[in-house]
């Protein structure tokens, strides 16, 4: 079943808002991340305890595309891959599902989006060299050797060991997968 771009964008945005709400409920402030002076983000909303930035997910308003990646690699990326990574700027969002803990990856700013594209190109080149099914990562797991990826041919969500073929299908689509996860907020110190 083909999922519309708007439906997936809405799912990504709603999960980010659920995470934000759960975080604020536990800590009574926005999420924090280490402040890096030369790595600003539209997500940043102020300073916390002098060394942290308060942040929140922000919808991307500038045009972000994967045209350069598709042209360089002479392929078309699945629409879900492009929609997911161009919906919002955000720090990673921790989540849980019945299969374990994970962190959803996003671009923090436009420079990070460019870096993300470079990493995706590297991943695709590795998959091509190994003659494996083409996937694109979108999350890390609590097992450093495993990632969650989207199959480029049909958009299904898989677990794969880095450098290996996907081995465990988690959902038919990214939108379906996002409905299966819940925010994982760190405990209070």
UniProtKB/TrEMBL annotation:
Top-level taxon of origin: Bacteria
UniProt KW Membrane keyword: yes
Gene Ontology, cellular component aspect: cytoplasmic side of plasma membrane
Main location: membrane
Topology in membrane: Peripheral membrane protein
Keywords for this protein: Cell inner membrane, Cell membrane, Membrane
Subcellular location: Cell inner membrane
Gene3D superfamilies per record: Syd protein (3.40.1580.20)
This protein's record includes keyword Transmembrane helix: no
UniProt cross-references to InterPro entries, sorted A to Z: Syd (IPR009948), Syd_sf (IPR038228)
Function comment: Interacts with the SecY protein in vivo. May bind preferentially to an uncomplexed state of SecY, thus functioning either as a chelating agent for excess SecY in the cell or as a regulatory factor that negatively controls the translocase function.
UniProt similarity note: Belongs to the Syd family.
UniProt-recorded name of the protein: Protein Syd
Name of encoding gene: syd
């Amino acid at each position: 079943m083909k999922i519309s771009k708007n439906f997936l964008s809405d799912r990504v945005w709603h999960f980010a808002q659920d995470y934000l709400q759960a975080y604020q409920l536990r800590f009574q402030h926005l999420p924090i991340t280490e402040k890096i002076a030369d790595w600003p983000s539209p997500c940043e909303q102020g300073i916390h305890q002098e060394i942290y930035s308060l942040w929140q997910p922000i919808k991307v308003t500038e045009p972000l595309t994967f045209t350069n990646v598709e042209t360089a690699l002479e392929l078309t990326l699945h629409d879900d891959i492009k929609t997911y990574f161009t919906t919002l700027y955000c720090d990673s969002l921790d989540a849980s599902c019945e299969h374990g803990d994970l962190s959803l990856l996003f671009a923090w700013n436009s420079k990070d989006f460019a870096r993300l594209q470079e990493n995706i190109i590297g991943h695709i080149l590795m998959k091509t060299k190994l003659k494996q099914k083409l996937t694109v990562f979108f999350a890390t797991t609590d097992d450093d050797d495993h990632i969650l990826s989207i199959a480029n041919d049909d958009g299904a969500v898989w677990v794969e060991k880095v450098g290996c073929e996907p081995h465990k299908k988690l959902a038919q689509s990214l939108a379906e997968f996002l409905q299966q996860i819940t925010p994982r907020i760190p405990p209070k110190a």
